[in-house]
Amino acid sequence: MENFQTQLMEHLQLYARRHNGHFTLYTNPEHPDYGHMYLFEQPGSYFLMTGSYTISEDFSLPFHLEKTLLHFGNFHTGAALYQLDGRAPAKSTPCSFLAVEQNLHGIQHWKKGDHYYGIELIVYEDYLKKLGASRLLEADFLSAFRPDYTYRYLPEDVYQILEELIRLIREKRLSPLMLEGKLLECLAHLQQEVYSSENGFLKQLDYGRIRIGKNRSFQLTLPDLRAVHKAHEIIRLNAVNPPTIMQLAAMVGISVQKLKAIFHHQYHITIGAYITSVRMSCAARLLTTTQLSIRDIAWQTGYQQSANFARMFRKTYGQSPGEFRSRANPASELPAGSLPASEDEIGVNTRLPD
């Protein structure tokens, strides 16, 4: 990382003009239009770079990152083309960003005339581990982020802290203690975000596409997933008397088509089959833990007709409810009102409603 910084400054034609113990200012007195760069560093722990500079010539730099870093910041202007080994070229654009970078290798390109203005903080994993050991940071904090993925998002509080750091640097008031305090504040807000139910970073992830039929597909989003997970829970709690699919879709705020497609994609089962699965699991539990009649169990699991219940139970478990109960507890005796010995007596072949 240090070698990359040195080469970058050489190509920017910015040179260390003032070193004040905890920061270095890079400028070019002969070409003030090239801009400037500030570097604040706590070796082995973190460093901050901020500046406003213009590229004086085209250049490219390879990079080889051997450590794990947390990298985040705000770029107001500037774009750079880069390519990671084994991946297609990509382009950075002005935005807030965050990435957990691990063993990255690639090359980055800069174009003459492009202007950059922004701030970035890079935090080493060892520093974060020390915070974890002190219980100031969750031990699994970094694992909350997808490695080597650039999130185009920062919580508003973190954004404002970074902007305040720029102001403090401009006013020459940023001390080492103040910088570390601001960094810890950023980490606190990031941690609060990743463990909240409204984690904004999850909204940045690509959840893939779901195909509908032969020629149609749609992009899966975090709100879609949350809606389907909510639908799954509603069904689990109301399998005896579930809402219709149209009612369920309205309850979770998603279209019927999306609900059916995403539900099957996530749980590998249709909504109707899941309702039956929950009912049959409940029936099996009642058969083995209670002395309720089979007719009562059918009613409690959402079947008004014992015949329909018996047919579905046999389809699920390969035996009648009575056989299932007897094998689970051979000593049990069926109470009055339970399923007759002959399934034909209750019309086991009766057609189930669609």
Automatic annotation (TrEMBL):
Keyword Endoplasmic reticulum: no
InterPro entries: Homeodomain-like_sf (IPR009057), HTH_AraC (IPR018060), HTH_AraC-typ_CS (IPR018062), PchR_regulatory_protein (IPR053142), Tscrpt_reg_AraC-type_HTH (IPR020449)
Record domain HTH araC/xylS-type: where: 229-327
Span list, region Disordered: 320-354
Membrane-spanning ranges: none
Keywords from the UniProt entry: DNA-binding, Transcription, Transcription regulation
Origin: domain of life: Bacteria
Full protein name: Transcriptional regulator, AraC family
Taxonomic source organism: Marvinbryantia formatexigens DSM 14469
